[in-house]
Amino acid sequence: MTRITIVGSINLDFVATAATLPAPGETVTGANLARHPGGKGANQALAARRLGADVGLVGQVGADGLADEALALLCAGDVDLSGVGTDPAAATGVALIAVAAGGENQIIVAPGANASFTPERLTTVPPGALICQLELPVATVAKAVAMAEGFVCLNLAPAAEIPPETLARADLIVVNETEAAFYGQALHAQPGLVAITWGARGAGLFRAGRQLALAAPPKVEAVDATGAGDTFVAALTLALLEGQPPADALAFACAAGALAATRPGAQSSLPTRAEVLALMEAAR
């Protein structure tokens, strides 16, 4: 199996699902509350594992009652957690997520132990491919990318200023529309691939500003988009590592992300490879 290491965040998500999302200053009541393991790093790790990769996660939780719950599905999914440490002075990261009936969401993150996973706590990056996001300190992400020896995927979410050499080292950069606008033409000045996602409208894959592929996801009934973007990142990385052509890799990633949006929660929604392939076959 393809080996992928994810250096990233680990959270517990508190998800309130309501008919609509609140406008500024508005209170929306009648919501249903659920708790799900989350965090972009943990989501991408479990997504890659369910899609068929051999996966290790490097990150940090707090010394509190939320840590075991945040790691539960990763443990059950056979993700290697030997790189996950504990900060006795911090709380486990928490995300507060509001979800509307159509799947649109709003997210506020209290990073906790993710924020205290500073560069000196990152001692090694195992051989193989690497996926990073920006829910850890940027300096830690930059160190991980500099230490990597293989393929590097950099998911620039949430958008933040990042060292130019870190961008240049990435073999694959993944952003959504908002993040793409934040980085502007700097994305297309890099030597690696750039994937831009447009939600239900699909995604594009570019190199040096030139379009290599476009893909639209199969039509599904969206329930909760939480975790869909993380599934896309994991699926696209794995497909490219497997040598799939750009158009096929992008179509696989769009289908995986769409399927994740049909279920509530982040990690609880992540599809298996067989499910993704079945959806693609049904959509033909």
Automatic annotation (TrEMBL):
It catalyses: D-ribose + ATP = D-ribose 5-phosphate + ADP + H(+). K(+) binds at residues 224, 226, 260, 263, 265, 269. Activated by a monovalent cation that binds near, but not in, the active site. The most likely occupant of the site in vivo is potassium. Ion binding induces a conformational change that may alter substrate affinity. Keywords: ATP-binding, Carbohydrate metabolism, Cytoplasm, Kinase, Magnesium, Metal-binding, Nucleotide-binding, Potassium, Transferase. GO terms for molecular function: ribokinase activity. Residues 1-273 form the Carbohydrate kinase PfkB domain. Pfam families: PfkB (PF00294). Its main location: cytoplasm. Its EC number is 2.7.1.15. The active site is at residue 230. Signal peptide: none annotated. It comes from the Bacteria. Belongs to the carbohydrate kinase PfkB family. Ribokinase subfamily. Homodimer. This is Ribokinase. It comes from Phenylobacterium koreense.
